[in-house]
Each structure stands twice: as C-alpha cells, then as structure tokens.
Amino acid sequence: MTEHIVSQSTATPSGSAPSWSPLGSLTIQAAPATTQILGMAAAVPARVYQQMDLLKLLGYEDQEKARSLFENCAIDQRYLALDEADFQRLRDPKAQNDQSKQIVPLAEAAIKNVLAATGVHMEQLGCMIVTTTSGLHMPAVSAVLAARLGLPTDLVRYDLTGTGCVGAMPTLSLADDYVKANPNKRVLAVCADLGSLVLGTAEPTDKEAMVVNALFGDAAVGMILGSGPSRPGIPEIVDVVYRQDQAFLDAAFVSMRPDHLLEAHISRSLPDRSAALLLATLDALLEKHGLHRDDLKHWAGHPGGRLILDKSQDGLGLSDAQLAPSREVLRQFGNVSSPTCLLSLRELLARERPAAGDRGVIAAIGPGLTVGIALLRWT
Question: How far apart are CA 143 and CA 157, in angstroms?
Fold first, then answer.
C-alpha cells in the first residue's frame, strides 16, 4: 500500500468548578474532557490510474458523453484495489464479493500508519471504531482488525455501516462521546471504503452509472482521538451536528440488482439539494455557538464531485483558497466515500498552519440525504 501520513498529538487541560446542589451541599463538577484529533494517517492501494486511462478500462473510449464527463469532473487520478484484469470481472457478483475483502488490508494499513505516527501504545487504547460501507462482513471488520493487529482483547469496538460519504461524522461524534466518558483512554478510528466495488461497464445511455464510474476511488484514513495537555496546531472537536432531508432518501443509495451485483445511484439533483441542506446545517451550528461564517478560517469540505464543491462554494460564499484543499483531494483521489472529508482535513493541515483560537469545520454529505458538520477549534 502507498502510505500518506499526517500526525499530530495534543489535548487540553481539564478544570473543575464548584456548584451548589438544591440541598445546599457543595459538589465538585469536573469539566468534561475535550476531544482532540491527536493524529491522522491515510492509506491507498498501490495501483493508481489516470482518469483518462480509466475511461478506456471501463469501456467508454468511444463514448463522447463519457469522455466529456471524465475530462470535466476535476479528477486527474484515482487509487483502486483493482489490477487491469479485474476490470474484465467487474460485473461478476463473486468477484465483487471477493474484492470487498480488500477493505481489511486497506484499513489495517491506515491503522498501522497512524499508530506509528503518533506513538500510541496499545494499553492506551480503549475504543475502536471502524466505518465502512464496502460489503457485508462477519465477523465484523473491527474484530478481524483487532486480531490481526494484536489489539487489547477488552477493546470496546463499534462497526458503523450504511453511512456512505457522511460516515466520518458519526465516527467523530461517537469518538467524542467515548473520550468525554473515558478521558484517560484513546480512541482508534478508521474510515475505509472501496469505491471500486460499484464501478463497472454500463450502457452508454445509463448516465447514472457513467457518473459513478467517473467519480469513485479507494482509500482509508486512520485517526487517534483523545484528551491531554494542550499543544499548538491540534484541532479539538467542539461539536458535531447532523441534518437530514427526509424527503430525499433516494439522493444517493446502493442497491442489489437481480443478478446480485451491487450498484450505486446518485440523483442529478444531489448538488443543489445538498448545498441547501449544508447551508441550513452550518447556520444552525454557528448560531448554537454564537458564531458567524466570518469566524471560520478553515474549511475541510466533502469532495463528492466538482458540482458538489461548486454549489457549496456558491451557497456559502467560500473563497477559492478555503476550498483549495478539498479540490486537491478530488483531483488526487476522486470521491472515496467516508474518508474523503478527512483527506480534506489532512490536506488542509499540510497546507496551512492554523493558529491558536482559529475555528474551522469538516463537512460531509451522504445518503439519507444527510449532512454532517464537525466544528473544530485549534489550541
């Protein structure tokens, strides 16, 4: 696997404040621990394909509409857990099922990278969260990874599935809850997805399949989250919020065909609907914390596609510089589902040096139609 590693570590001090109970007895209430992203690391398959080479491998070489789409979706390359022979078997259910097992080594590589980058010891880990929508796995992916990596046998393990591109948000929210309840423990989290599972040859008239084939790639991002002494440059999680457009459940989904093949569906109205929902969700979050859009200096958006980014930029009034990390992730990786917005944060941290007190957000858009936003503050 090709490694992409970014790591940092920090935490914030806790304090205590006295308060009086209704009976008049003095109690001490400790301030809840502040959850921080102590380290991040990414992993991708070793094989990287140029976008226009994929046009040929997917059977679109003679299709002018497909060529125009592939050329104008702002993606230069994608990492895929496929060799060239695999492209001939993309419409085979058994091959698709076998390929889904590649999620384990991909997630494992990201975990090894983040453990090495942060120097976290096994005994510090209390919780493990694995988020993926790539296949049905039993035993759970977390159980397999824990055994392969020799993680503590009493680790609290969670496996999140069905969340698609918004999956990083429940991952961060669950990690935040665990750290607040267990401030002396660390959370190991990984978001890993195989967009290549839903790629495949399709009729030229199937525009939805053509869009899917033009967008998706494979990647994993591992994280260590916890609390501790404050250090410069480390983002802490202030809040994670969601909002769902329940009238638009079919905005993006995966279904099983009669021949038992999985296929992805994306509505043409997704960019407009998601941008409106993103705007409403962000404004509600900022109002909750007494903030305004001008208070946000950093933006790690979800590169779900060029139109998703364009509509988000227009609706929120974001500058080109604010969206540059997200556009770079789209260019290098395509849409890799749940890890995509985390790759945007990784790119942001590589490009910028957030100052103490700076605020920013991670934003993701996924099936449901659901928008998730994590408000961050740098220490």
Answer: 8
Domain termination site, one of 197, 226, 255: 226
pLDDT value of residue 256: 57
Pair 254, 344: CB distance under 8 Å: no
Indicate which CATH number applies to the domain containing 255: 3.40.47.10
Whether the model clears a pTM of 0.85, i.e. scores above it, the answer is yes
Examine the domain organization and report whether 121 and 47 are in the same domain.
yes
- Which residues, 6 or more positions from 369, have their beta carbon under 8 angstroms from its beta carbon? 244, 245, 248, 249, 251, 252, 270, 273, 274, 277
Q: What is the largest CA-CA distance in the chain?
A: 81
Mean predicted lDDT score pLDDT of the chain: 84
Q: At residue 370, what are phi and psi to the nearest 5 degrees?
A: -125, 135
Residues 373, 362: contact at Cβ < 8 Å? yes
Residue-wise pLDDT tens digits, 56-107:
998 888 888 889 989 999 999 999 999 888 887 777 777 777 778 899 999 9
Give the separation between CA 299 and CA 321, rounded to whole angstroms: 9
Domain end among 172, 207, 226? 226
